[in-house]
C-alpha cells in the first residue's frame, strides 16, 4: 500500500471528524467571561496546526473538501445527520509523513450555535451505537472496523469534547488486506468545532494525543483573542 490509500481513508476520517464534533456534552462545559463568536477565515488559518508544530519530515497541503459519496456501514447514518450542517467558514491542513501516516487539522465556524447543539444531540445517539463499521465504500474498498468513543474531559477551556478510536482491516479491490488505525479528537468552543484526525497502518495513539493537544491549545488561544505559542511535537515514533 502507498500514499494512494490516504484518500480512501479520508472518507472515514471526514465522517468521524464531523460526527465526533457534533456532540453536546454539557458536563464538559466551561464558564467563560465572554461568549465566543464564529471565527473568521483568517483566524481559522492560524488556529489549525502549522508546519512548525509537526516538525521536519512532513509534507502539508490544504485539507480536501468533503466529496460526494456514501460512507460504509453505520457511518452513513452519521453522514446523513452531518449533511445538515453548513459552516460559515472552514479550513484546515493535511500533513503526511512517509507513505501512509496522515494527520488532518481543521476548524469549522457556524453562525447558529443553538442549531449546532440540536444536531449534536442527534449525532451523539447515533455515534454511540456505531461501534463497528463493515461495508464497501465508493472506491470498492471493504472496511471492517471496530470503533470506541469517549467524552472524557481531556482538554480544558472548551465547551464540548469527544474522541473516536478505530482499528481493523481494509481490503482493497485487488484483495489485499491491510491493518488500519484511526484516531479523531473533536472539541467545540462556542459555535466553532476543531478536529484533529490521524490515519496510519500502525497505532499512533501517543503521537495523536500530542498533535491534538497542540492543535486544541492553538484553537482556544485564537478563539480567546490570544497569540498561539509555537510548540513542536516529537517526531513519529520518537520517545515522548
What order do the helices and strands come in, and which of them pair?
Elements lengths: L4 H17 L19 H7 L3 H4 L4 E4 L12 H8 L6 E9 L3 E9 L3 H17 L2 E5 L5 E9 L9 E12 L5 E13 L2 E9 L4 H19 L17
Antiparallel strand pairs: 1-2, 2-3, 3-8, 4-5, 5-6, 6-7, 7-8
Protein name: Lipoprotein
Keywords: Signal
Describe it.
It comes from Nocardioides silvaticus. The chain has 240 residues and is of the alpha+beta class. It is built from six helices and eight strands. It has a single domain, classed as 3-Layer(aba) Sandwich (Protein Transport Mog1p, Chain A), CATH 3.40.1000.70. Strands 1-2-3-8-7-6-5-4 form an eight-stranded antiparallel beta sheet, with helices on both faces. Strand 6 and strand 7 (177-189) form a beta hairpin. The chain starts with a helix and ends in a 17-residue tail after the last helix. The model is unreliable at 1-8 and 23-32 (pLDDT under 50).
Amino acid at each position: 500500500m502507498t500514499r494512494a490509500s490516504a484518500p480512501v481513508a479520508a472518507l472515514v476520517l471526514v465522517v468521524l471528524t464531523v460526527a465526533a464534533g457534533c456532540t453536546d456534552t454539557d458536563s464538559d462545559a466551561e464558564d467563560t467571561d465572554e461568549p465566543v463568536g464564529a471565527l473568521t477565515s483568517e483566524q481559522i488559518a492560524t488556529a489549525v496546526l502549522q508546519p512548525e508544530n509537526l516538525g521536519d519530515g512532513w509534507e502539508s497541503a490544504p485539507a480536501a473538501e468533503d466529496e460526494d459519496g456514501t460512507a460504509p456501514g453505520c457511518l452513513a447514518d452519521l453522514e446523513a445527520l452531518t449533511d445538515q450542517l453548513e459552516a460559515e467558514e472552514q479550513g484546515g491542513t493535511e500533513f503526511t509523513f512517509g507513505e501512509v501516516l496522515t494527520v488532518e487539522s481543521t476548524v469549522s465556524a457556524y453562525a447558529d450555535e443553538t442549531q449546532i447543539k440540536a444536531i449534536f444531540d442527534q449525532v451523539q445517539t447515533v455515534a454511540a451505537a456505531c461501534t463497528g463499521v463493515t461495508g464497501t465504500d465508493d472506491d470498492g474498498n471493504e472496511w471492517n472496523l471496530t470503533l470506541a468513543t469517549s467524552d472524557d474531559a481531556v482538554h480544558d477551556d472548551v465547551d464540548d469534547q469527544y474522541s473516536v478510536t478505530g482499528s481493523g482491516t481494509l481490503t482493497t479491490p485487488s484483495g489485499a488486506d491491510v491493518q488500519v488505525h484511526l484516531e479523531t479528537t473533536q472539541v467545540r468552543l462556542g459555535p466553532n468545532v476543531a478536529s484533529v484526525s490521524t490515519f496510519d497502518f500502525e497505532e499512533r495513539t501517543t503521537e495523536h494525543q500530542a498533535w491534538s493537544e497542540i492543535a486544541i491549545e492553538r484553537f482556544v488561544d485564537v478563539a480567546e483573542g490570544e497569540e498561539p505559542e509555537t510548540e513542536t511535537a516529537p517526531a513519529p515514533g520518537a520517545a515522548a
